[in-house]
Amino acid sequence: MTLRMRLQPEAIGSGMTSQRVRDRLVDRLREGHHESGGIRDERVLNAIRTVPRHLFVDEALATRAYEDTALPIGHGQTISQPWVVAKMTEALLESGPSKVLEIGTGSGYQAAVLAALGLEVHTVERIGELLRTARKRFRQLGMNVRSKHDDGRIGWPENGPFDAIIVTAAAPALVEALTGQLAPGGTLIAPVGGAGSQSLLKLRKDADGNITQQTLAPVVFVPLLSGMVD
Ligand code: SAH
After folding, report:
1. What would the pLDDT profile of 150-178 be if each residue is shown by its tens digit?
2. Alpha carbon separation from 125 to 89, 107, 168, 209, 227 (Å, rounded)
3. Smallest CA separation from ligand 1 atom 11, residue
4. Which ligand 1 atom sits nearest the alpha carbon of residue 153?
5. Which CATH number characterizes residue 116's domain?
6. pTM reported for the whole predicted model
7. Which residue among 103, 149, 153 is best mutated to probe the pocket of ligand 1, counting the most ligand atoms within 8 A of its Cβ?
8. Selection from 204, 196, 143, 136 nearest residue 172 by Cα
9. Mean pLDDT across the chain
């Protein structure tokens, strides 16, 4: 598989961001840990190995970028744990999507992993400053990601329908506008539940528009909030 990004020499750094450190993260994801099962899809593992996660966090946190943990990105938000990114990406790839919508750009890391897999990525973020920083990273890595500053609970109707939708912030219930923008045969992955703990849901819409749903794992995400901020 060809990963669609421009790898810059500085992207493969030394020490705590080296290829060896990234390979160790990928080994951990493959094995799984605690109740979380291992990631099997080699395309996903390859994308995690390739996308430089340390460029998606503040420099002061770069040495922790290849730990399997969520990290703060400012504004009370977090870059998701690599295992969660890998799990959601694996589930999303099952139905063979090409056009994907993400709600909650945050650092841009999840969007970058999807773009590295050759998917057409659309992403929506409500915090302007996070989105501006994420856009710089996409540019720096030569990634073509379409992004919008908006309240993602309305989705991106002008660009839909989407073959897959991934929501990276938690809501108490599935957002109807989003399931509405899912194409027949499509998959939606979203954490659903209250603050502190949620279930990661996988929803499939069949050719007739019927919806089936499955629980993938217990997860913890920041909340899906309403409105936009600069
Ligand atoms: N996918 C991100 C995870 C970021 S955390 C990453 O890889 O880094 C969740 C993000 O969702 C936060 O940036 C938060 O601001 C954003 N968010 C929360 N509610 C939102 C909404 N209604 N619309 C768009 N983004 C939202």
Report:
1. 999 999 999 999 999 999 999 999 999 99
2. 19, 10, 10, 27, 10
3. 104
4. 22
5. 3.40.50.150
6. 0.94
7. 103
8. 196
9. 93
Asked if residue 32 belongs to a domain, the reply is no
Residue type (1 letter), 106: G
Residue 186 to residue 66: CA distance in whole angstroms = 31
Domain that holds residue 208: 69-219
Tokens linked to 28:
């951990």
Q: Is 228 exposed, middle or buried (0-12, 13-18, 19+ CB in 10 A)?
A: middle
Residue nearest to atom 20 of ligand 1 (CA): 224
Question: Cis omega (within 30 of 0) on the bond before 161?
Answer: yes
For residue 182, report the distance from its CA to the centre of ligand 1, in Å.
19
CA–centroid distance, residue 223 to ligand 1 (Å): 8
| Domain count along the chain | 1
Angle at 30 between CA 114 and CA 6, to 5 degrees: 35
By CB neighbour count within 10 A (0-12 exposed, 13-18 middle, 19+ buried), where does 155 fall? Answer: buried
